Amino acid sequence: MNSNTIDSLREALKHSPDNVPLRLLLAENLLALNELQEAEDEFTTLLRYTNELKARIGLAKVFFRKGNFSACNVILEEIVEQGTQDVEILTLHAKALLNENAVSRAVEVYQMALEINPGLSDEELDSQLRITSIYEEEKSSEALDGRFLQKPDVTFADVGGMEAVKKEIELKIIKPLLHADLYKAYGKKVGGGILLYGPPGCGKTFIAKATAGEVNAKFINVSLNDILDMWIGGSERNLHEIFELARHNTPCVLFIDEIDALGASRSDMKQSSGRHLINQFLQELDGIDNNNDGVLILGATNTPWNLDPAFRRPGRFDRIVFVHPPDDASREAILRLKLSNKPIGNIDYAQVAKRIENFSGADIDAIIDIAIELKLESSFADGIPKPIETKDLLEAVKRHKPSTQEWFTTAKNYAMFANASGLYDDILTYLKIKK
Ligand SMILES: Nc1ncnc2c1ncn2[C@@H]1O[C@H](COP(=O)(O)OP(=O)(O)OP(=O)(O)O)[C@@H](O)[C@H]1O
Ligand SMILES: [Mg+2]
């Protein structure tokens, strides 16, 4: 394989440009020579008129080498979904996923490869995914810091509405970090946390990430599902390591997303092991053996009713905040935010906002997406992007059902029949139901 081969392949292609195997050979040779751009061009050309698996794999490999992991994953995801048994592809996909921080999916895909070939051992994946102690790894490399210690670049300005939630976070998290000295003067510890709960897609994760942009402190972002991955290691130990990471990086906001996983673990796992994890979690929150001073906790869940009441004691999640679907003004604000960098014409935001009652932020993302697709179709003819207008958004609204209603059906039951402590009064108020 050398440049002579390439030249002769190109020459041959001139005479039969539609010869798929020939172009494939050229593309693969270019890839082998690490001529990434040229290889990409050839694979892309091929994929314009065939759906040849080898070309898709080749293109994925090019993207991987270029560091474009998300494009690589899009291609491989489809191939894996179609049931590939190719260990090399599964391994590549796992690596690309890992590079995108999709740890639990990477574990899944690597496990698929191991099922096909139990003797398989990939050094990189083994060391990254079968970590015995997260903290040990942290000491030896920056990798863990990179994975969990993040500084997302969204701020409150990117979050439409949600004023009440912003205010709680301001009071309980931002202010204490800003005035740590004042707290010290009064001998008050900076700690404790907020638990955000509510229907899916209404901005819990989003506002938590935006909090990171607001505070001048370290921000650790983990999903309980990542911690719970049995294969990676014991959940209790992982949970401990995460808290340790936070304690070693104060002042620090520790955001634990998808605490619902605790509920799931309680019913799915043996009762005792689930209990064990909950106790570990409570212990970490208290920081009995370890000092939690300077660690602020932000949690999010869809199913607060699965959470042990012990989590709500002072010093643990001492504020429980209901994140409801955006109100009229917030929906308008979110629409404006999301459309601000799109080609738009005249848009009657208030009118659209009125029509999307019960829509979550994620639903609003969805209708904008639909509107854009509709617009794209009509722009193909002349290649000129047509501005999005009110009627496009209203048309999109018709095609999308709000995703928050199911949650309220369940939540309402808890709020009406399991609300002795008044915990869910906010839900009743929102639903305009009197106690
Ligand atoms: N107030 C908002 N302003 C701007 N965008 C929002 C807002 N609320 C939600 N979004 C958009 O909706 C998407 C989904 O929100 P997010 O992931 O935060 O929901 P969630 O409450 O964490 O849902 P889940 O319970 O399913 O985890 C966000 O990525 C964001 O683009
Ligand atoms: Mg979320």
From TrEMBL:
One Gene Ontology molecular-function label: ATP binding
Protein name (Swiss-Prot/TrEMBL): ATP-binding protein
Occurrences of domain AAA+ ATPase (ranges): 190-327
UniProt similarity note: Belongs to the AAA ATPase family.
Keywords: ATP-binding, Nucleotide-binding
Lineage, top ranks: Bacteria, Pseudomonadati, Bacteroidota, Cytophagia, Cytophagales
Pfam families: AAA, TPR_19
Organism domain of life: Bacteria
